[in-house]
Design a protein that fits this description.
It is a single chain. By secondary structure, this protein is an all-alpha fold. The protein contains four helices and no strands. The chain folds into two domains: 82 residues, no CATH class; 32 residues, no CATH class. It is elongated and about 115 Å long. 0% of the residues are buried.
C-alpha cells in the first residue's frame, strides 16, 4: 500500500477511535451529572427529614410534659386545681339560635317583602 493510503487509513481509524472515546466521555459526564443531582436531592431530603425529626422530638417532649397533661386534664376531664373556680358557659340550643336569626331577618325586610313572605311562603 502506498503511504498516502496508509496515512488516510490511519487517519480514518484514529477519527473513529476518537469518536468512540468522545461518546464514552459524554456518557460518563452525563452519569456523573445525574449522580451529583441525585446526591443534592438526597441531601435536601435528609435536611427535611432531620427538621421533621427535630419537630417530632419537640412534640414528644411536650406531650410528656406536665403542662400538656395538666391541659388535657382541664379540658377533656374537667378537672381543676385546688382553689380554682370553674365556670361553665352553655351555648344556646340551635333552635333558639335559628329563631334569633329569623327575627333579625324579619327586621331587615321591607313591609311589602313581609306581606309577600306571609302569603306565599
Amino acid at each position: 500500500m502506498p503511504t498516502s493510503r496508509k496515512s488516510k487509513f490511519f487517519f480514518f481509524f484514529a477519527v473513529i477511535i476518537l469518536f468512540f472515546i468522545l461518546i464514552n466521555l459524554a456518557k460518563s459526564w452525563q452519569q456523573s451529572h445525574q449522580v451529583k443531582n441525585e446526591m443534592t436531592d438526597l441531601q435536601n431530603q435528609i435536611q427535611t427529614l432531620e427538621k421533621d425529626n427535630s419537630n417530632l422530638k419537640e412534640l414528644v417532649t411536650y406531650l410528656n410534659s406536665n403542662a400538656y397533661i395538666e391541659e388535657k386534664a382541664r379540658v377533656d376531664l374537667g378537672l381543676k386545681k385546688a382553689g380554682e373556680k370553674v365556670v361553665v358557659v352553655n351555648d344556646l340550643p340551635t333552635d333558639e339560635i335559628s329563631e334569633a336569626n329569623k327575627n333579625e331577618e324579619q327586621k331587615n325586610l321591607s313591609n311589602s317583602q313581609k306581606w309577600w313572605k306571609y302569603f306565599f311562603k
